[in-house]
Amino acid sequence: MAQTFKAILVSRDDDGQKAELASLGDGDFMDGDVTVRISHSTLNYKDALALTGKAPVVRRWPLIPGIDFAGTVETSTYAGFKPGDDVVLNGWGVGESHHGGLAGRARVSGDWLISRPKAISAARAMAIGTAGYTAMLCVMALERAGVTPERGDIVVSGAAGGVGSVAIAVLAKLGYRVLAATGRAQEADYLKSLGAADIIAREELSGPARPLGKERWAGGIDVVGSLTLANMLSMTRYGGAVAACGLAGGMDLPASVAPFILRGVSLIGVDSVMAPRERRVEAWNRLARDLDLKKLDAMTTTIGLGEVPDVAPELLAGRVRGRLVVEIS
Ligand code: NDP
Question: Which domains does the chain have, with CATH numbers?
Answer without folding.
Answer: 4-116+299-327 (3.90.180.10), 130-269 (3.40.50.720)
